[in-house]
Amino acid sequence: MDEQRPIKIKVRGVSKVFGKQPSKALALRDQGLKRSEILEKTGQTLGLSNISFDVHEGELLVIMGLSGSGKSTLIRCLNRLIDTTEGDIIIEGENIPTLGEKALLACRRRHFSMVFQNFALFPHRTVQQNTEFGLEIRGVDKKERQKIAHTALQQVGLEGWENAYPHQLSGGMQQRVGLARALANDASVLLMDEAFSALDPLIRKDMQQELLQLQTRMQKTTVFITHDLDEALNIGDRIVLLKDGEVVQIGTPEQILTQPADDYVRRFIEGVDRSRVLTAASAMRPLRTTARESDGPRTALHRMREHAIDSIYVTDRDRTLLGLLEAETAIAATQEGADSITRYLTQDFRKVSPEEPLQHLFAMFSEKSFPIAVVDEQQRLLGVVVKGAVLDELARAGEQ
Amino acid sequence: MDIPRLPLGRWIESGLDWLTSEYSMVTRAISRVTQTGIDSLNDGLMWLPEWALLLIIALACWKLASPRLAIGAAAGLALIWNLGLWNPMIETLTLVVIATLVAVVIALPVGIAAALSERLYRVIMPVLDFMQTMPAFVYLIPAIPFFGIGSVSAIFATVIFSMPPAIRFTTLGIRQVPVELIEAADAYGATRYQKLFKVQLPLSLPTVMAGINQTIMLALSMVVIAAMIGADGLGSEVWRAIQRLRPGDGFEAGIAVVILAMLLDRLTQSLRKASR
After folding, report:
1. How far is the C-alpha of A179 from the C-alpha of A185, rounded, in Å?
2. Torsion over CA: A154, A157, A159, A165 (sign)
3. Which of A275, A378, B108, B194 is the 20 to 30 A CA-CA neighbour of B60?
4. In which residue ranges of chain A is pLDDT below 50?
5. Which of A62, A111, A22, A360 is nearest to A230 (CA)?
6. Is A134's Cβ below 8 Å from some Cβ in B?
7. B202 contact residues in A (CB cutoff 8 A)
8. How many angstroms separate the first and last alpha carbons of chain B?
9. Residues in chain B closer than 8 A to A136 (CB atoms)
10. CB contact, 8 Å: B190 with chain A?
11. Quick one: which of B128, B103, B116 has its CA closest to B212?
12. At what angle do helices A171-185 and A127-138 cross, to 10 degrees?
């Protein structure tokens, strides 16, 4: 679904060499040398190599990698806090690496807000003044920016702290100010550099949830850097996985988990609590058989017997789910001489959307243990999840 | 092996001579302006009755620092008054104030420039080392051909001697601003001047104030020494006591210097704390 959103930032073939003769390092790379070999030969570090990806309008894109993977460099290339060595970064038709000084300032002001790992709040400014910073830089007049900053502080739940100084706040609150400063600025892209990494785990979870809520409300294009896969899977619409300055895989959290691109990714996703991100769709099985509403009880029974099952889902011509027919009821219907099954259907089963997390499904299996029906928004039956499949999927996740 | 001695001293002298004759217009103008400044400040401070100035200073100490400093200042100044050293003390204070003002006015922009430009930094640091380690007396000698005997020469030598810490601390203060704050300012599209005035300078203020405090202390020590080239003030009292072999008079003037030094130090320190 993200693929249909318009592209906000186009990153194409971006490389970054730290050193004085970058072209040499790039030439060696083109000959196929590894990062460590290039460092040994030239004393220069290939920070990023030939990175390409898109950031779609309104999505939360996570760039994740371990330290040294180049993720911090990459996010700084986006707003050119670090100059790229080669490649294009195009936002609304402007190629950021080629902008002149003035155009770059204008571009940063219009397009980018940034939240930093260590908050980077100005210690000599109050919470309010910190929040106003971006607007002040752009020359927004005082009344106006006070109003905007007030709203932003409300959004992050910091009303009443306007006149406090950063050092008077806890880490979590400081980062809320950082977030408010970014939101007040109302730039078109939000860059978050390990924004929650310095917070303790509980606060971190809270902040992730709040970010997700903000995200659903505001649909702001966000690029989020993290070294924490759990965090990436939790908040990312899509994930760009970096290793040694190169892209290893780009995909939705589920794609990363279920179709890891290589051994590196596979090792990476070990130990992740997969039940949280695996969804009904991944454990769903196609239906071996269904009954039609026009079927008589005998036909339905025949199908059940054929597949050795004791209940059957009944759909109409468009595969819209109508209900479940149990074998016992079907037998009773034949004894009563009924020629339609529609009156004998039960609604006593669970149905979920394909996006439902697997862990939720666990609780849904009742003693009767009917398969859970997976339906789309039009109530069309897509498949079923049986108890065993959920366990299988989780076990497989544990093994890897 | 007879290596000829380098006539380094002669070169310097001819250079100074050349400067003196070529730029006499400039030095004379500077001299006139400085002398006017010294005279007006001096006259102003002396126009006030002793008790009035004493009260003003004590009140300032109360407001800016602490009641304790106010009491100390009042007692110290009263002692100076009692010893009959009030006017020399005012003269010394005037020289310190003017020398510090000139030094700071030069040092701030130079310090900022050195903080922002790596190349300038590399040029300026050895010059500062030179200025600070050269024995202070040496500056007195060229001051005379430039500005003649008297207070202006004293100011010239004092400015050169006391300026380095103000430059150093300004540079240090700006360079100490955490990189992530600079990044934050950049990320939001701050221009160089916005960055300087909204982030770098406010954050370096405590360090800059520490530098100014050092400058004041050095200036005080130098204006006392400058009595040797005819500067008025407490230094000349000490100088006279040496020439007449009167240790009592010397110590009296010396104690007055100590009182003034402590007063200026504590006052600027408290300003520095307030700027945090």
Report:
1. 10
2. negative
3. B108
4. 1-2, 400
5. A62
6. yes
7. 124
8. 62
9. 198
10. yes
11. B103
12. 20
Backbone angles phi, psi at A348, to 5 degrees: -85, 60
Cα–Cα dist A90/A10, whole Å: 5
Distance (Å, rounded) from C-alpha A259 to C-alpha A252?
10
**Cβ B177 vs Cβ B199: under 8 Å:** yes
Domains, chain B, ordered by start: 22-274 (1.10.3720.10)
- For residue B242, the surrounding DSSP H or E stretch is helix B234-243
CA within 13 Å, CB half, B144 = 12
Strand A7-18 to strand A321-326: parallel, antiparallel, or no bridges (unpaired)? unpaired
What is the spatial distance between Cα B231 and Cα B149, in angstroms, rounded to a whole number? 8
Tokens of A295: 């079927």
Please report the pLDDT score of residue A394 as a whole number.
67
CB contact under 8 A, A105 and B194: no
pLDDT at B87 over 80: yes
Q: What is the pLDDT of residues B104-152, one digit of tens each?
A: 999 999 999 999 999 999 999 999 998 888 888 888 888 888 888 888 8
Is the alpha carbon torsion for A236, A238, A239, A245 positive or negative? negative
pLDDT tens, residue by residue, A267-312 = 877 766 666 667 787 778 777 788 888 888 888 888 888 877 888 8
Residue A13 and residue A214: Cα distance in Å, rounded?
A: 32
Cβ(B59)–Cβ(B177) under 8 Å?
no
pTM of the entire predicted model: 0.73
Sole residue written with tokens 């460099």: A73
**Residue whose C-alpha is closest to residue A233's, from A245, A214, A249:** A249
What does the DSSP 8-state code read for residue A3? G
CB contact under 8 A, A81 and B202: no
B123 touches chain A (CB under 8 A): no
